[in-house]
Amino acid sequence: MANQSSRLDHVFAALADPTRRAIVMRLCDGEASVGELANPFDMALPSFMKHIHVLETSGLVLSEKSGRVRTCRLSPEALVGAEDWFQQQRAIWEARLDRFEAYVMKLKKEKERAGAKRPSRTTKRKGSE
């Protein structure tokens, strides 16, 4: 469990940065060389390579070098843990919201019952004419 949590931490940390999210989004369209990936960003290649390294460490990106060209591709399996975590969180929050809704409905019914037991305000009191 701790190992899974650690992997999840790495995935979320990698996706916390907008540059790395942009790289992942670009790789959704297919593999690309590091040069192609770095082109839209205004940063030096060594700085860009640090982003690639973080994505590789998290397991989100795989790369291989052929000659002088390093090609990157997305590894969607790394997102399975994050997807599972989101589904668990959704189930927890849906259950909480269902219980909250039931509580609100209970309060509403109690208020309606209390309102039905009160005497009508339209009845006249003696001497109020």
Note the topology.
Layout: H1 2-15, H2 18-27, E1 32-33, H3 34-38, H4 45-58, E2 61-66, E3 69-74, H5 79-117
Antiparallel strand pairs: 1-3, 2-3
Helix pairs in contact: 1-4, 1-5, 2-4
Write up what this structure looks like.
This protein is mostly helical. It is 64% helix and 11% strand. Strands 1-3-2 form a three-stranded antiparallel beta sheet. The protein is elongated and about 100 Å long. It starts with a helix and ends in a 12-residue tail after the last helix. The model has no long low-confidence stretch (mean pLDDT 89).
Output the keywords:
129 residues; mainly alpha; 5 helices
Estimated share of beta-strand residues: 5-15%
Order of helices and strands: HHEHHEEH
Q: Indicate the mean pLDDT.
A: 89
* Global structural class: mainly alpha
Largest sheet: 3 strands, antiparallel
Helix content: 55-70%
What is the C-alpha radius of gyration, as a whole number of Å? 29 Å
Cα end-to-end separation: 77 Å
Question: How many alpha or pi helices?
Answer: 5
User: How would you describe the shape?
Assistant: elongated
* Strand arrangement, major sheet: 1-3-2
- How many β strands by DSSP? 3
Low-confidence stretches: none
Looking at how many chains there are and whether they match, the oligomeric state comes to single chain
